[in-house]
Design brief:
By secondary structure, the chain is mainly β. Among the domains are: about 100 residues, Sandwich (Immunoglobulin-like); about 90 residues, Immunoglobulin-like (Sandwich), CATH 2.60.40.10. Helices cover about 0% and strands about 50% of the residues. The chain is built from no helices and 48 strands. Strands 1, 32, 34, 35, 36, 38 and 39 form a seven-stranded mixed β-sheet that branches. The relative contact order is 0.10.
Length: about 575
């Protein structure tokens, strides 16, 4: 019987896919201050959010109508304000405040107020205190957004009274203005938000679309490409890039518009290759997005945090959510403003215009929601058992455990009931496997923790067992068989080869074989004469790719010749070989 197979402790030998009902992210904690000033027309107190680590502890920074608030996350279920730095401008007209962190300093701007400034806050003494080390309108008064190119040590203030300003922050507390656009050398339109890495900027230019600009020489920027006409086009607001640098997720701040996936691999040929949305209502509106690994986190007005699996950026899959806003959906602006999913602990931060800071547990990466049979090159026979290792991804829930099931070519298999822990690799025995008609078939395992499901497959062959050959001629017990006989048997099945064996001793068959030959036919003819008046025994072994069945042994007596050369038909009785 064929049962040999090869095991490999690798994942790429077979395929894995996953699917899920969108998972609600667990809420850990919330911080808000109901004494803060309300805006006069939005009924809001809060705006953007960022996160950082200082002295081994994680923190959130959230803007409000009055200040930048530093929130300690030592216990994320009890977020606490540990410091507050009032803005240079505060009040009922303050809507936008933007915050970014670099090398232990917070950079803060507001988009309203004639007395606004660029503020730099030193965080190095946390958790005890912070200090305002720069508070100046020399380069920036108001600005809609900030972005820091950490590789180039440059701070970009966009929507800064209609301009984009580039500053060197190699000395983090003393910015140096490098350029301001538009200028005589470069006519960059109004930029609402941006993503810049290693001097390449993806500039969200509101009604002028997306511009890709090389800022290596800030005095002479180079436009690498523009996307000014695209499907479902709205107010080009914000975006984020994939880790491989090939795709940009673009948000239009217009009600009812999808998030777009832009192929940026060739900046001179920017192309929208996919669009997606949660599909919750017709007026939904994405505000900001950030990518962590293979997950895209998006802040949606009215609809909270929305999450997609973008491991294939051209086919985003809805992955999870947390709705921060309890009110009704309207074609206005309320609810989730900002999102920050990049803390080392995978704690997720969201700012809600009315509800303050929401602290959530992050969702597992798609690659960690997996089940994988660690097996390759398996061929075995119908009815045999297979013992193989199966790996469970470590992203499943530890609270519920993981259930496992399996099927072969769509046919459910019986496997022992078990509840597994995330990260387990267990040995699974599959018994009485059905045949797969000599072709590769998917052996698929399914893992489920009640929220996330995954399936992983390996291709195996389970060969059907050939029918047991039925010996027909010479029949068992036949006498006076010709000295040059033909042997015939009945069998069925495809791809079968037969091993014909003729021996002289039924009790010691294997050691008395005279003739052995392979054939694909159901018959065999001898090419040499047998001796007269001799007992012979024969059998046939059917072989389908190593899966074998064996006939009974049949015995016969060859014809008898007397001393004169004539056949002798005396009285003789031949006893057949008993059935086994």
């Amino acid at each position: 019987m064929k049962s040999a197979f090869t095991l490999f402790a690798i994942l790429f030998c077979s395929s894995t896919m996953l699917w899920a009902q969108p998972a609600e992210m667990p809420l850990l904690g919330n911080w808000h201050d109901d004494d803060l000033i309300l805006t006069s027309w939005l009924d809001s107190r809060y705006n953007d959010v960022w996160g950082f680590v200082m002295n081994g502890q994680e923190y959130a920074a959230i803007g409000s109508t009055e200040a930048t608030h530093i929130i300690g996350l030592a216990d994320p279920t009890q977020p606490q304000e540990v410091a507050r730095v009032n803005g240079a401008y505060m009040g009922t007209n303050l809507v936008h405040r933007d915050i970014k962190e670099f090398n232990g300093y917070l950079y803060c701007v507001a988009d309203e107020g004639s007395t606004s400034t660029l503020q730099i806050i030193d965080l190095h003494s946390l958790p005890d205190s912070v200090s305002l080390v720069y508070n100046s309108n020399e380069f920036v008064i108001t600005s809609h957004n900030l972005f820091i190119d950490t590789a180039a040590h440059r701070l970009y203030a966009v929507g800064a009274q209609g301009k984009t300003k580039v500053m060197d922050i190699s000395n983090p507390v003393q910015p140096v203005l490098l350029a301001s656009y538009p200028n005589a050398n470069y006519n960059l339109p109004y930029v609402h938000d941006a993503y810049i890495n290693d001097n390449i900027g993806y500039m969200n230019c509101a009604n002028q679309g997306l511009w890709v600009v090389d800022f290596t020489d800030p005095e002479n920027p180079v436009t690498l490409g523009t996307l000014t006409d695209y499907p479902d086009q709205g107010y080009n607001h914000s975006g984020w890039i994939t880790d491989d640098g090939n795709y940009y997720f673009l948000c239009d701040e217009t009600h009812g518009m999808d998030i777009k996936v832009v192929d940026i691999s060739d900046p001179s040929d920017l192309t929208v290759v996919a669009q997606f949305s949660p599909g919750l209502w017709d007026g939904e509106i994405a505000h900001n997005v950030i990518v962590r690994g293979d997950l895209l986190y998006a802040s949606y007005y009215y609809n909270g945090v929305q999450v997609w699996d973008v491991s294939d950026p051209t086919q985003p899959r809805y992955w999870g959510y947390y709705d921060t806003y309890p009110g009704p959906d309207e074609t206005f602006y309320a609810g989730n403003w900002g999102i920050y999913p990049l803390l080392p602990s995978n704690t997720i931060l969201a700012s809600d215009m009315q509800g303050g800071l929401f602290v959530m547990a992050g969702l597992p990466q798609p690659a960690d929601i997996a089940v994988q049979p660690l097996v390759s090159d398996v061929e075995l026979c119908e009815g045999e058992s297979l013992l193989l290792p199966v790996a469970i991804g470590n992203g499943f829930s530890t609270a519920t455990g993981v259930s496992l099931s399996a099927e072969l070519a769509g046919v459910p298999l019986d496997i022992p009931a078990m509840t597994l822990a995330p990260g387990d690799t267990i040995m699974v025995e599959l018994t009485d496997l059905p045949e797969t008609a000599d072709t590769l078939a998917a052996l698929t395992f399914f893992a489920n923790d009640g929220t996330f499901q995954a399936e992983g497959s390996a291709e195996i062959i389970v060969h059907p067992m050939p029918a047991v050959p039925e010996l027909q001629s010479p029949a068992n017990g036949a006498v006076s068989v010709d000295l040059l006989p033909s042997f015939e048997w009945a069998s069925s099945g495809s791809n079968i080869t037969y091993l014909f064996q003729l021996a002289t001793d039924s009790l010691n068959f294997d050691n008395s074989i005279l003739v052995e030959a392979s054939t694909s036919d159901n018959s065999f003819s001898l090419s040499q004469y047998l001796e007269y008046s001799h007992y012979y025994y024969w059998r046939v072994i059917a072989d389908n790719s190593g899966c074998i069945t064996e006939s009974d042994i049949a015995g016969f007596l060859t014809t008898m010749i007397d001393a004169t050369g004539e056949q002798f038909w005396g009285e003789i009785e031949v006893y057949p070989v008993p059935a086994r």
